[in-house]
């Protein structure tokens, strides 16, 4: 049953109304990433009354996140909470009428299809192009709408993708940029108001789709909040697009997600992902590591510090090795202290 008072200012809008509000309550949205964009998206959606929010993120909170990631506070950083878990705790306090499902995982070809299948619509809040192209493949393959969004400095970009009707990401940008050519938020910075602006437009596009507003045309929006400018250019499907035209899903079919290690962009850290999903026995692991270094466990993730290296073990078996960018060293430390 809808709470009329809670959503009164929204249902009175002719574009939504009571019927649209019911559609929102019956919908499930997946947010891929819980950082600058994702935390703003998630709060907008929760307050709007989306019935089910699935929040997926691979990382834990650090102090520098608080500048632009609006859902979190200093206590979350002190507890070293994973972003998805901290976001879920906050949003349950914001709106207890909806379902919040945190997923502490790295998005790969091994799990993206299952995640997309759980939702009616997907919002992009990822921090790398590889994940975005993987998401584009999965959404187009499943026929699920998704909204691309990116932010850097004071600039942003948004594209709503309606598979089968409008262009997909690869219609406009066939291949991701080469590694190292595009600056990151860590090296270039990000203005928190720019992230909120991009997230607001993404969520608005999502709400329009859910309540049944048919797009007359599809547009790529570019924003510069510092200069106060917005540009929207027509975006059309490209004949012969390898993804939505030829239905060739290069990123989805790459079988990534097997045992791997990757240096995190802009971070002095390496993520080591197991070949198969593991469920660590944190109690035994804590007992085994305690004589070897400092161990903390906040009920969600375990941290082990030995010398200048800090290992963060997630519930899905991933290990974030902080203090190095040497993948061989990271995998060696995981094998030495965590095992397989």
Task: Provide the descriptors you would attach to this structure in a database record.
340 residues, alpha/beta, Rossmann fold, TATA-Binding Protein, eight-stranded mixed beta sheet, 12 helices, 22% strand
User: What percent of residues adopt helix (DSSP H or I)?
Assistant: 25-40%
What is the radius of gyration?
20 Å
Number of helices: 12
Based on helices, strands and strand pairing, what is the structural class?
A: alpha/beta
* Lateral arrangement of strands in the main beta sheet: 3-2-1-4-5-6-7-8
Largest sheet: 8 strands, mixed
CATH fold type of the largest domain: Rossmann fold
Query: Poorly predicted ranges (pLDDT <50, ≥5 residues)?
Result: none
β content, as a range? 15-25%
Specify the CATH architecture of the largest domain. Answer: 3-Layer(aba) Sandwich
Rough shape? globular
N-to-C order of helices and strands: HHEHEHHEHEHEEHHHEEEEHEEEEH
Number of strands: 14
Compute the separation of the termini in Å. Answer: 47 Å
Looking at this structure, what is the CATH superfamily of the largest domain? Answer: NAD(P)-binding Rossmann-like Domain
Rounded mean pLDDT is 89
The oligomerization state is single chain
């Amino acid at each position: 049953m809808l709470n009329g008072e809670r959503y009164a200012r929204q249902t009175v809008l002719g574009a939504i109304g009571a019927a649209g509000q019911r559609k929102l309550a019956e919908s499930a949205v997946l947010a891929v990433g819980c950082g600058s964009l994702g935390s703003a998206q998630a709060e907008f959606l929760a307050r709007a009354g989306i019935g089910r929010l699935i929040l997926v993120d691979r990382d834990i909170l650090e102090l520098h996140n608080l500048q632009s990631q609006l859902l979190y506070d200093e206590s979350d950083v002190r507890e070293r909470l994973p972003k998805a878990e901290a976001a879920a705790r906050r949003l349950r306090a914001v709106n207890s009428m909806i379902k919040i499902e945190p997923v502490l995982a790295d998005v790969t070809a091994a799990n993206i299809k299952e995640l997309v299948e759980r939702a009616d619509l997907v919002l992009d809040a990822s921090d790398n192009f590889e994940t975005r192209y993987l998401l584009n493949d999965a959404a187009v393959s499943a026929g699920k709408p998704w909204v691309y969004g990116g932010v850097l400095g004071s600039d942003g970009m948004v594209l709503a993708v309606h598979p089968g009707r409008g262009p997909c990401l690869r219609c406009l940008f066939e291949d991701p940029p080469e590694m190292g050519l595009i600056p990151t938020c860590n090296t270039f910075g990000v203005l928190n108001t720019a992230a909120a602006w991009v997230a607001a437009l993404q969520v608005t596009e999502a709400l329009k789709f859910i309540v049944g507003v048919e797009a007359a045309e599809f547009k790529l929006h570019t924003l510069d909040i510092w200069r106060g400018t917005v540009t929207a250019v027509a975006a059309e499907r490209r004949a012969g697009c390898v993804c939505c035209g030829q239905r060739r899903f290069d990123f989805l079919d790459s079988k990534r997600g097997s045992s791997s290690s990757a240096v995190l962009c802009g971070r002095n850290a390496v993520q080591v992902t197991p070949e198969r999903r593991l469920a660590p026995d944190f109690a035994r692991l804590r007992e085994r590591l305690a004589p070897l270094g400092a161990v903390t466990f906040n009920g969600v993730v375990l941290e082990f510090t030995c010398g200048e290296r800090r290992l963060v073990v997630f519930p899905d078996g991933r290990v974030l090795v902080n203090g190095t960018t040497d993948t061989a060293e990271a995998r060696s430390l995981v094998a030495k202290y965590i095992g397989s």
